[in-house]
Design a protein that fits this description.
By secondary structure, this protein is mainly alpha-helical. The chain has 2 domains: about 80 residues, Helix-hairpin-Helix base-excision DNA repair enzymes (C-terminal) (Endonuclease Iii, domain 2, Orthogonal Bundle), CATH 1.10.1670; about 100 residues, Hypothetical protein, domain 2 (Endonuclease III, domain 1), CATH 1.10.340. About 55% of the residues lie in helices and about 0% in strands. It has 12 helices and no strands. The chain is elongated. The two termini are about 15 Å apart.
Length: about 250
């Protein structure tokens, strides 16, 4: 497996799509990743996931656009909300506030009213604050640099990666609960490697160049529909032939 991309001289202290400050421990993690799996296994993992997604991926409204504003709205709604419930509010919200400029200048109470029923209202406040910052500080254009996205209200490491890959087709990794479950099971990671930090490093390492937007959707969909928490549907999983957990392999 190739080593992690090196940060160019004079670049900000962020790995390209990891957003994590460099630390001495990173070298140790990189070495562990190089022993994670044979490159052919990783390629099969990527290929099988993307092929499965092309055939069976969920048809969700926010997957039909590359508008960064619409994608941001969906990602914020999906924070602590299930997909089916977010779908009930997504179109309604965008009809009320179709552009980042309209959300930025909207009345806060009206935004909360439109959000009513989704809960966790801090998300709506942060979404509007982000819209206001984008209008005031970026002339209404969404920044494409990870270090500029990550500092916006309510945008964490996952949401920044989602924005970069889905809206801008950048080679950015994501890690949500579903993706973490797939990675943990496929590579049969021992408990000491099931940390958020290490899983982010694995996610960055296995995200294929030029196909992050497909791979990221695929790994989330597989975790949500097949590699589920309690009763995984291993018999129909496209990763079954190479999955170390299914085949009882240990690293």
């Amino acid at each position: 497996m190739p080593p992690l991309a090196r940060v160019k001289a004079n670049a900000p202290p962020f790995l390209w799509f990891g957003f994590l400050p460099q630390k001495p421990a990173m070298a140790k993690k990189t070495a562990a990743l190089q022993r994670l799996a044979h490159p052919a296994t990783v390629r099969a993992f990527q290929r099988r996931l993307i092929s499965w997604y092309r055939a069976y991926g969920r048809d969700l409204p926010w997957r039909r656009t590359r508008d960064p504003y619409a994608i941001l709205v969906s990602e914020v709604m999906l924070q602590q909300t299930q997909v089916q419930r977010a779908m009930l509010y997504y179109d309604k919200f965008l009809q009320r506030y179709p552009t980042v400029e309209e959300l930025a200048r909207a009345d806060e109470g009206e935004v909360r009213e439109t959000w009513e029923g989704l809960g966790y209202y801090a998300r709506a406040r942060n979404l509007q604050r982000t819209a206001q910052k984008i209008v005031a500080e970026h002339n209404g254009r969404f920044p494409k640099r990870p270090e500029e996205l990550i500092v916006l209200p309510g945008i964490g490491q996952y949401t920044a990666g989602a924005m970069l890959s889905f809206a801008f087709r950048r080679d950015a990794a994501i890690l949500d609960t579903n993706a973490a479950r797939v990675l943990t099971r496929f590579f049969a990671l021992p408990p000491e490697q099931q940390t958020t930090s290490f899983l982010w490093t694995v996610a960055r390492q296995v995200t294929p160049s030029g196909q992050a937007h497909l791979f990221n959707q695929a790994i989330m969909d597989l975790g949500a529909t097949t590699c589920v928490a309690r009763t995984p549907r291993c018999s129909v999983c496209p990763l079954r032939p190479a999955c170390r957990s299914v085949n009882g392999e240990q690293r």
